[in-house]
Amino acid sequence: MPNKYEQDLEIDESNDLTMDNLQSRKSAELTSLGYLPDSILILIFSYLTPLDLIRCTRVCHRWHLIVSHQQQLWRRLFLRPDCTNGHIGAVHVRHIDKFIYMLGTRCASSLIYIDLPVELVTVEVLRVLASHCPNLEYLTLDFSSAMQLHDFSELNEFPCNLKRLCICLSEVIFLEGFMRRIYGYISSLNTLHIIGTIEKSSITSTEETDTYETINISKIKTHAPNLRVINLYGISFIDDNHVELIASGCMHLQCLALNFCIRIRGTSFKNLMNRCTKLQCLLLQNTGIQDDAMVAIDWSSTQLSELDISSTELSENGLLVFFSVVPKLTYLAVSYCDGFTDKVLNLLMDRGILNGCRALDLSNTVNLNVDTVHHLLTSSPSITYRLEALNYTGHDDITEQFWIDTIRYLRRIKILIIGTAHSWFRQIARRIHIDQILEACAIHCPKLTRFEIQWDPETLRFSENSSKFIDHLRVRCTNLLSFVLSDGAYYEGAKANFERAERFSVVRTTTMYQTSIISALSFYNELRFN
Fold it and tell me: Is 411 in contact with 441 (CB distance < 8 Å)?
């Protein structure tokens, strides 16, 4: 016998309420969720995470049937305990047998995305995914915490229609025995992520610890010739020999990300650019690329349009030679690049390389003069007219007048990151009055979606009328999704202002959030992992 609350949610099968006549029914009759038809409930449930759907099954028998039998509600499954960023709710699997049954019945043909921790990477789970989930396109296999693998000697089935495969490596487990079983099923891949175990100690030195090649790159490129995007992130054993292997087998490659692969020197890039003629995006943050290797390439004959050389040790002369032949760029990130000087930026402006640039990261370029950047943003309409993302932080000489003068030219800006973090440590005596900066953004940047101000509370100055300027920003920048500030009195006031307008979770702190321009990349959706 259903309890009182379940009776309120039950409806008769003869109920004729539909999407068509829902608006015509009197609002007085819609006093319970029980009056909503299944079609509307399914539409509501489609916005919930798997974790919330599981909770809904405990509400009443009707909801249990709807959630259990509507496969379209189970399109994505997040099963790793660390997958709890924002709206994504991770599900912890306690009983593998029940989970395998659910995969074959509840998810089946509707499942398109799943990530598996190492304890769920078993022969039985992979067999069910291969036989019951033909539309599975995105698969993540997380071996990062593995100390021992399951026995895959009987693995003869694997999803064969995958578009993206993400493998998180372990420091001590060699995956060749497992990979040998799946090579024949990955020919459909367009995107490959291999995530390493980079740590602070391994960033600074390659000699401190032994590194093991826990996965065979050469065999992957042989069995996945249609790869368009390859992301090798923080893998300590990746060097130029591996890039040569990729260049020899992946002729359709359009994006190569080697961020935090510190053994990369760039000697393989000449063959890479000659063979992979479609390559448009090259991400080299915190790699060991050298001047001689970069200047030995005829970049003018390539299709390169997006480049990240942040935290590299390229010299000023090397960058001058490099940028004298590079084609026009729509994305350029040079943060923490000491060789990026006034001469280099002037060369970029003179050659028109940044004309039409969508995203620019000049943060923490200590040898770049503030006046040169001011000239770039105020006197180059061919650059600022299309600029959608700008990161210019980490300079002690930047004042509020700098941003008041330049923001008026950034009418298409969507992502803006300004300020200087840890001003107290830098002993900056200048104080920044924030009100007029917000007013300039409210007037000239109607498309602003993400805005970060890094100055700490000791540096920021605001007045009694600051709430008025925050109002202007909130009302005029209707697309603003993230407003990141240092924790302090100004942050508390801005947060309260947005929450009074029922815009929750917009104002955030730099302690928990960091804004980046990386979403301006053409291949951003393909490059996302974890």
Answer: no
Please give the structure tokens belonging to residue 237: 């054993």
Residue 113 is classified by DSSP as E
Same-fold call for 4-72 versus 388-530: no
| Contacts by residues 218-224 (CB-CB < 8 Å, ≥ 24 positions apart) | 218/242, 218/245, 219/179, 219/183, 220/179, 220/183, 220/186, 220/192, 221/245, 221/246, 221/248, 221/249, 221/250, 222/183, 222/249, 223/183, 223/184, 223/186, 223/187, 224/186, 224/187, 224/189, 224/192, 224/250
Tokens of 56: 């809904």
CA distance 118 to 521: 31
- Measured CA to CA in angstroms, residue 83 lies from 86, 89, 140 at distances of 9, 7, 12
**Domain boundaries defined on the chain:** 4-72, 74-189, 198-304, 388-530
The angle formed by the CA atoms of residues 141, 104 and 124, to the nearest 5 degrees, is: 50
Which CATH class, in words, describes the domain spanning 4-72?
Answer: mainly alpha
The continuous run of DSSP H or E covering 460 comes out as strand 460-461
Return the CATH architecture of domain 388-530: Alpha-Beta Horseshoe (3.80)
456-489, pLDDT tens digit by residue?
998 899 988 999 999 999 999 999 999 999 999 9
Does 14 score more than 50 pLDDT?
Answer: no
As beta bridge partners, residue 168 has: 142, 195
Q: Of 86, 76, 130, 126, whose CA–CA distance to 106 is shortest?
A: 76
Please state, in angstroms and rounded to a whole number, the distance separating the CA atoms of residues 319 and 340.
Answer: 7
Cβ(517)–Cβ(333) below 8 Å: yes
Q: What is the pLDDT of residues 55-72, one digit of tens each?
A: 888 888 999 999 888 888
What's the angle, vertex CA 219, arms to CA 214 and CA 224, rounded to 5?
120
Helix (H) or strand (E) holding 502: none
- Confidence class of residue 77 from pLDDT cuts 50, 70 and 90? confident
Taking only the tens place, the pLDDT of each residue in 180-194 is 999 999 999 999 999
Residues 365, 319 contacting (CB under 8 angstroms): no
140 φ, ψ (degrees, to nearest 5)? -115, 130
Q: CA 438, CA 430: separation in Å to the nearest integer?
A: 19
Q: Residue 405 gets which letter from DSSP? A: H
Quick one: 39 exposed, middle or buried, by C-beta within 10 A (0-12, 13-18, 19+)?
Answer: exposed
Buried b or exposed e, range 94-103, using 16+ CB within 10 angstroms: eeeeebbebb
